[in-house]
What we know:
It is a single chain. The model has no long low-confidence stretch (mean pLDDT 85). The radius of gyration is 18 Å and the shape is globular. The chain is an alpha/beta fold and 225 residues long. It is built from ten helices and six strands; from the N terminus they run E-H-E-H-E-H-E-H-E-H-E-H-H-H-H-H. Helix content is 48%, strand content 13%. It has helices at residues 11-21, 36-46, 62-71, 91-97, 109-120, 128-139, 158-168, 173-180, 184-198, 203-212; strands spanning 2-7, 27-33, 50-53, 78-83, 101-104, 125-126.
Amino acid sequence: MIRVLLADDQALVRDGFRALIDREDDMTVIAEAGDGAEAVRLAELERPDVILMDIRMPVMDGLEATRRIAAGPAVDTKVLVLTTFDQDDYLYQTLKAGASGYLLKDVRKDQLIGAIRTVAAGDSLLAPSVTRRLIEDFCRRPPPRTSTLPAPLDRLTERELQILTLLAQGLSNAEIGTQLFLGESTVKTHLGRILNKIAVRDRLQAVVLAYETGLVQPGGTRRQT
């Protein structure tokens, strides 16, 4: 059973999410928070599998709440941000803070339920329009001037760098395996080592780091070192 915490300052929004989620056989809403500070407290107390997190909330916003949850004792809790795209300036900061997914509030019901299952399973996701916005942001940045890999990427083997590059290009484990002639389980093992070496929570954080450090250029090509 996927245990979900709702964090949104609008009671009607929480009621709608609860009604939708509680209809599913494999998930349930265990608690609700009306602000970020309450979300942090309930995350530590209830240890939910997934938190649906709004950004604009009183007392503490969703960005700071996500950061504290990611750094706190509820290490297995995944944060799935749902927000209004046109009113949100925190996309990159939210992902850096530790969110495992970022969706818009106009998402379809079936997409939201699927997103909760995806994040609970340890995967990560972004709405397509959000992905474009993130890549456009990296396109506007000057390329790194150094020819050497920055920390912590310098801890990775050549094979691990290949896998991280393909991951940042949007390939699944199976597709990475096909490209590199590896079994899917082997790719999964490599990814676990990569996440541990670069000290990130999940695949999404690894992709952000790959672009942030310049390992992968917008368009998916790997930087030459």
